[in-house]
C-alpha cells in the first residue's frame, strides 16, 4: 500500500481501492444505503433508529453467520430457516415446562447442533452436495416442526415470558439492545474462529481447493461435518433469540424463506459464493444492509414482493461482481 520513491513513501490509492473492491465491497453498499436512507428519512442515522434496525437484523445476522461458514467451504445450507423453526419450537415447549431460560438456550443450541450434524454427515461422509441435502432437510425439518405444534403456533406462557424472556428480546444496556450485543459478540467469536484457529484455516482451505487440502492430510469430510454442525448451532441460537423477541413460534411460517435472506446477507457482505474467500465482518454489515433496505422500502410504501425481487437481484449482482473481479484478477 506504501511505495518508496527515493526517501519518500507514497500512498498507493489504486492498490487501496482495489483491496476494498476485492475484499470489502460491502462498504459501497453501506455508503449508498446511508445516502438513500437520509433522503428517505432525515432521522435515518439517529442512534435510536440505527439500534432499531440493528435489533431487527440481529436474528437474521446470527443465522447468516452460520451460512457464512458453510459457504466458505464451498457448500450451501438451505435448511437454516427450518432448523430455526424446529429448535425454536422445542425451545418453547421446554420453556413452558421448566420456566428456565438457560435450559431453553442449551436445548435450542443442542437441537440446532444435532440437525446441523445430520446435514453434515450426508455432505461429509456420503459426499452428497449440500444443496441437495439441505433442500431435502428443509422440507423434513419443517414437517417435524409442524407436527410439534400440530399445525398451529407454540406460544410461551405469557406471565413467565414477560418476567424472564422478554427482557432478552427487548432489554437494553446503555441504549444498546441485548439482541445487538449478542449479535456483535457472536460475530466476534466467529471472527476469532476463522482468523485465529487451525479450524478457521482449514475452512478457507477446503473452500479454496478441497482436493488439494485433502492431499495435505486434512480430513475434509470432518471439516464439512463440523461446519454444518456449527451452522446448526447458530441456527439454534437464532431460534432462542427469535423466541425472546416474538414469544412464540408459528410452526408453519416461522423463519420460512429466511435462508434466502441469510444467503443475500452473505453475498452482500462480499463472501465468495464459490467458497474460500470472505470476511465475517462483511456478513455482519450485509445483514444490517439487507434489513435497512427493507426498512427504507417500507417507508416508501413499496409492496412486499418488490422487497423479495430486490433481494434476488442483490444476490445475482453480488455473484456477477465476484466473477468480474476474479476474471480481472486472473
Automatic annotation (TrEMBL):
<feature type="transmembrane region" description="Helical">
    <location>
        <begin position="102"/>
        <end position="122"/>
    </location>
</feature>
<feature type="transmembrane region" description="Helical">
    <location>
        <begin position="167"/>
        <end position="194"/>
    </location>
</feature>
<feature type="transmembrane region" description="Helical">
    <location>
        <begin position="20"/>
        <end position="40"/>
    </location>
</feature>
<dbReference type="GO" id="GO:0022857">
    <property type="term" value="F:transmembrane transporter activity"/>
</dbReference>
<feature type="transmembrane region" description="Helical">
    <location>
        <begin position="225"/>
        <end position="244"/>
    </location>
</feature>
<dbReference type="InterPro" id="IPR001851">
    <property type="entry name" value="ABC_transp_permease"/>
</dbReference>
<dbReference type="Pfam" id="PF02653">
    <property type="entry name" value="BPD_transp_2"/>
</dbReference>
<keyword id="KW-0472">Membrane</keyword>
<keyword id="KW-0812">Transmembrane</keyword>
<protein>
    <recommendedName>
        <fullName>Sugar ABC transporter permease</fullName>
    </recommendedName>
</protein>
<dbReference type="GO" id="GO:0005886">
    <property type="term" value="C:plasma membrane"/>
</dbReference>
<keyword id="KW-1133">Transmembrane helix</keyword>
<feature type="transmembrane region" description="Helical">
    <location>
        <begin position="78"/>
        <end position="95"/>
    </location>
</feature>
<feature type="transmembrane region" description="Helical">
    <location>
        <begin position="52"/>
        <end position="72"/>
    </location>
</feature>
<feature type="transmembrane region" description="Helical">
    <location>
        <begin position="283"/>
        <end position="303"/>
    </location>
</feature>
<keyword id="KW-1003">Cell membrane</keyword>
